[in-house]
Amino acid sequence: MSPGDGIRVTLSELIEMRHRVREVQLFSTPGQRSPLIGLHHSKLRGRGVDFDQVRVYQAGDDVRTIDWRVTARTQEPHTKLFHEERERPIFIMVEQSCRLFFGSGQMFKSVLAAQAASLIGWAALGHNDRVGGLVFGDNEHYEIKPRRSKQSLLQLLNRLVRVNQSLNTESRPEADALGMALRRGREVLRPGSLGIVICDERALTEGAEQQLSLLSRHCDLLLLPISDPLDHALPAAGLLRFAERGAQLELDTLNIDLRHAYKAQAEARIARWERLAQKLRVLLMPLSTQSEMVEQLREYLNPQRPVKKQ
Fold first, then answer.
1. Quick one: which of 70, 169, 213, 274 is 20 to 30 A from 192 by CA?
2. How far apart are CA 230 and CA 25, in angstroms?
3. How far is CA 120 from CA 100, 105, 107, 161, 258, in A?
4. What is the C-alpha to C-alpha distance for residues 97 and 141, in angstroms, rounded to an integer?
5. What is the per-residue pLDDT across 94-141, written as a single tens digit (0 to 9) for each?
6. Residues 67 and 178 in one domain
7. pLDDT in tens, 13-49
């Protein structure tokens, strides 16, 4: 298995992801509001970096903002107003565990998760946001403090690659790695931050739900559960044998009841994510190894353009 083949991810691959940021509108611009919750110009007006408008001076306005040219022309005091930018750290919590070390589509789920984290990180950095994150997996986690620097993002991507390339099928996953990562996120995320959660679709436990609920009280959240087509449906491929750490499992995939039960479990997981997102009023964008990642994000975030009549 060589890096960069959809099974393992490389640092150069994640760095190159910065060139794909322009393909999808992840964050708002002054002329276009993205559906993705994130840093954008506040509706509040005050001292800031971007000029908004000039209006008649009012008692209590800062005299340093008086527009002397307009004042001289109109013979009435006028003051400049500015858009106030809210500083919003973006914290990317991304799973790299053995349960993600699998894929029947274009890549392994672990690679898809790393690519999504990279793209969001580059987009946030390009939007002049502070970026940090938490890489969590099998009995370990690595935290990168949010900073407005390329070095901080590269530190996060480098850790992602190191954990990704160490994945194997012999690891014993933590019972609730997602819940533990979210608990740590609650400790480090300031109110008003944006938390990005990229994890296996099967990782949602009662503990993780509780942590997400608590986190959503003071932070905005974006949930990106990762799945593979085989997580949702079994092929009618006859007798399949599985082995893991000495344990063996045999499935008759021609058994229609088995396939229906398997599909029902998957549908229940999907419905659980949807109910949670609706309850917490957060954005949910499931990703699958079946399709290219940027294309999936574009479908979620970019409104459909009207077809031009010939």
1. 274
2. 30
3. 19, 22, 19, 16, 38
4. 10
5. 999 999 999 998 999 999 999 999 999 999 998 888 999 999 988 889
6. no
7. 999 999 999 998 887 654 444 445 443 333 323 333 4
Residue 277 burial (C-beta neighbours within 10 Å; 0-12, 13-18, 19+): buried
Q: What is the pTM of this model?
A: 0.80
CA–CA distances in Å: residue 216 to residues 92, 117, 209, 221: 15, 20, 10, 6
Rounded distance between C-alpha atoms, residue 193 and residue 231, angstroms: 32
Residues of the domain holding 119: 11-30+87-301
Fill in the DSSP letter of residue 106.
S
Q: Write out the two tokens for 271.
A: 């419905």
Which residues, 6 or more positions from 207, have their beta carbon under 8 angstroms from its beta carbon?
A: 176, 179
Rounded to whole angstroms, what are the CA distances from 84 to 20, 26, 47, 49?
29, 20, 6, 7
| Residue at 1 is within a domain | no
State whether 127 and 269 are in the same domain.
Answer: yes
pLDDT tens readout for residues 253-285: 899 999 999 999 999 999 999 999 999 999 999
Single-letter amino acid code for the residue at 80: K
Regarding whether 80 and 95 lie in a shared domain, the answer is: no
Q: What 3-state DSSP class applies to 264?
A: helix
Q: Which two tokens stand for residue 234?
A: 């079994």
Beta pairing partners, 85:
41
H or E segment to which residue 85 belongs: strand 78-85
